[in-house]
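Database export, one record per block. Field names are fixed; values are copied verbatim from the stored entry.
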Amino acid sequence: MRKILIIIFLMFLTAGVTFAAKIPKDVQGFVEKSFPETDFRFDGVIILPDSTIYLPLFPAKPLEPETIEIRSTIPAGKTLSDKPEIVILNNNYVLLKVINDKSGKKTVLAPADIPEEIRNGLLPQDMLVPRGLMIPESLKGIIGNLNISLAEDPGLKVEVPQSKNPNTQNKVIPAEELKNKTFYIATGYSKNIQVINSENKSPAYALAQNYVPNNMKGYKDKFLLVTSFASPVMNVISLADEAIIKEIIFTSNPDEILIDREKNIAYVSCPSEASIFVVNLDTMTLSKQIKINGMCERLTLSSDGTKIFYADKKTNEIWAIELDNNYLLKDIGKFPNVSKIAFNNNKIYITSRTKNHLAIIDYATNGLIAEIKITSKPVDMITYENNLFILGAQENNIMVIDTKTDEITDSLFLNTNGFATNMTPIDGTNLAIVSDSRASIYCVLDMAKKQIVKASAIEVPIRSIVVTDRVKKLNK
């Protein structure tokens, strides 16, 4: 029975893209002429830069004109720049603007004389519609099998206990680059993802989950990808909707997530399946299964996106996957109690948590270049340009190594009196968040300057953190 389920699952891997609602490129280009920076979400929703929402109707018989143009609009005679309620294109696609009726409910316009393009159109069947959207009775045919809740749905948002002490100070002054940011934090013990404004130390609210989150990554300041303990599902959360927009189902519990932002793909490990799965982030669908040796952990993606490194938790064997070489597996060798793997300047860096040393391996020859005594209990390691940053939990410091010379250049002390746990680079910056499992504080590491530039109070422990710009909510 299990083999049959796996075969069916693999069939979905190859066919999954067909279930995604993809707006044709020529339609996207037409919209972007009037509204650059429009978000064409993978489920089909079109979001203009000012958060105006259009829902596309896919035609039963699409046409292929040489140039996309407007056939008609309601009200008549409008251009797309006018943002009319209905836009009918000459390839039979229709754009329905989400509007508010007299009672304030979200809906779409139902014309007295319904055009044929609307009567024969269909909403994307995997679309997450705005919460509380009311489809007029005369347009019910466009729904198909799409599930639309008629009641107002609060989504994932839940309240969190607030301090009743009026003297409690909640404000903090964040690092300059973190002003007006939002922190999404998985604590490791709560099912809820805590949402904290960077100027505060306590959560404003939380996003409810069915299981305790294990690993969490952000994508384009729009989505959270979340794996959980005891669940075979990776949730895709739309931050604008604060709702689960997609559930990606695996044959066993997914664990770690790596994101290649250049290729718009994610790598998700399933240790018990001896596999790493590839997720197409444009469509949020599974596209490939990479079979590996052993139960993978401590995954690392090279900065150029050509290699993944991992440790086999059963054998302590280190493996490399050459992604640009037909997923060739390369055995690096055995290393005890691996806590982290990094790759820089064609060298593999491997830390041992118990031996407190760093092994440096030449990738081309597999030869040992050096072993360096490092900070006690190394728990995390990240690279930035030609520097390697190693986080030591026992001494509560960060050791810096020049990867050109492999010499220790700096040791940065974390004055938190805690137990540092991990470092999370912030996309688009030279900063990283250094979190602590014991102290109610996080530090900000400037990797370019090799300095701790800020320490700020925070009221929740950090297992995983995603830092984003403030996201405008669509369901307000």
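Remark 1: The two ends are 46 Å apart (CA to CA).
Remark 2: Residues 1-19 have pLDDT under 50 and may be disordered.
End of record.
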